[in-house]
TrEMBL record:
Transmembrane segments: none annotated. The lineage of its organism: Bacteria, Bacillati, Actinomycetota, Actinomycetes, Mycobacteriales. One of its GO terms (molecular function) is oxidoreductase activity. It comes from Mycobacterium dioxanotrophicus. It comes from the Bacteria. Belongs to the short-chain dehydrogenases/reductases (SDR) family. This is Short-chain dehydrogenase. InterPro entries: KR_dom, NAD(P)-bd_dom_sf, SDR_fam. PANTHER family: OXIDOREDUCTASE, SHORT-CHAIN DEHYDROGENASE/REDUCTASE FAMILY (AFU_ORTHOLOGUE AFUA_5G02870), SHORT-CHAIN DEHYDROGENASE_REDUCTASE FAMILY PROTEIN. Keywords: Oxidoreductase. Residues 7-187 form the Ketoreductase domain.
């Protein structure tokens, strides 16, 4: 029997990149996966198609994040497909523009926080009535909250640092229900977000050199860690930030 048979999972931003790999892995482990999308319905449908082609179960549903009422719309859309959830993966996020602190605008700052921080907080809050006891919440964080600092990504790092605090505090709040809450902090991963940096042999080599394994992380590398945290094997792990950087901060 697959480890997640009978479970329902929701992966926000599940149509592309790390989110797609997470959705596919959870489905491979037996979960029925709700693949959320913001605006790219076609990508989410492609993920659903790939899961079904592999013998899994999945559906897509949409709600744009980062604006008032987003959490309510997300769960209203989800309710058309299922009545409860066992695993919530808050994966959707944006990097924002690389800019110096002196050039940072309030609009850009608030946009990153709206998508990366406010949305997952209230998606989780609104989802608690649907989240079954013994469930799992996994938040996507970043290595930029733990030791690696890039001034041009200040807002992104701040938005994810808030998620780290949310993770640890919510873990204590939900422990009486047997629900674990953890965060996963990737480094540079071969996704659209890093496409420009990885477009040249020199750029790819520089990113690979960040890890002692001397290779670029693939979305599946992160998805496998999330799958562990979503499983029964991780029942004694909660409130933690898991380094998923391939040792890039050693």
């Amino acid at each position: 029997m697959s480890t997640l048979t009978g479970k329902t999972a929701v992966v926000t931003g599940g149509g592309r990149g790390i989110g797609r790999a997470i959705a596919q892995r959870l489905a491979a482990d037996g979960a029925r996966v709700g693949v959320h999308f913001g605006t790219r319905a076609e990508a989410a449908e492609q993920t659903v198609h790939q899961i079904r082609e592999a013998g899994g179960s999945a559906f897509s549903f949409g709600a744009k994040l980062g604006e008032p009422g987003d959490a309510e719309r997300l769960w209203t859309a989800f309710d058309e497909h299922d009545e409860g959830v066992d695993i919530l993966v808050n994966n959707a996020g944006i990097l924002g523009s690389r800019t110096s602190f002196t050039d940072l605008t309030r609009e850009a700052y608030e946009n990153v926080f709206a998508v990366n921080t406010t949305a997952p907080v209230f998606v989780t809050q609104q989802g608690l009535s649907r989240l079954r006891d013994g469930g799992r919440i996994v938040n996507l964080s970043t290595r930029f909250t733990h030791g690696m600092r890039i001034p041009e990504l200040l807002t992104y790092a701040m938005s994810k640092a808030a998620i780290d605090a949310f993770t640890a505090t919510l873990a204590k709040d939900l422990a009486p229900r047997g629900i674990t809450v953890n965060a996963v902090g990737p480094g540079s991963v071969d996704t659209d977000m890093n496409a420009a940096r990885l477009a040249t042999p020199e750029g790819r080599a520089a990113v690979a050199a960040q890890s002692p394994f001397n290779r670029v992380a693939q979305p599946e590398d992160i998805a496998d860690i999330v799958a562990f945290l979503a499983s029964e094997d991780a029942r004694w792990v909660t409130g933690q930030w898991i380094d998923a950087t391939g040792g890039s901060m050693l």
